[in-house]
Amino acid sequence: MKYIIDRLNTQHLALPNIIAHLSDLHLHLSPSPGKWNIKDNIAHLARYQTVFLKRMHLIITMDNPSFDPYKAEEDGEFPLWQSRDLLELQNALNADRVLITEFMTSLPTNDWQRTGVHSKYGMLRVIDWTEFFLLHEADHLFTIFQLAHNRESK
Fold it and tell me: Which of 29, 43, 67, 68 is least buried, going by the fewest C-beta atoms within 10 A?
């Protein structure tokens, strides 16, 4: 589990470096109609952490709870996250990551084997859900990197 905890502790820390050189205009520049800009991607990462932690609590306290894929466009709270300023989103991202990491490190080893059902991916253990969370986050960080370095948008 150490490798997962290490990634939980550090993966999100790439974000400030990726966006440090960007103007506010660049952060809000949509790559195409209907596509998220950099700030929207950051809002999604911050919001999804709260969803992930709630799901982990349910998996630990219930037998095999079921979850549909998270879709920001179906989340009534997501527009509130999109309206937050960048500093507030980054602070929430960091603070909630501490909560996630503390929760995960406090789990007894056998709880990492508890399961929840994802409607697309089936039965997943806590360790699988955490891997899924980290890969999802990495995908958005890569998207942010691409948007930050897209020469056509400068």
Answer: 68
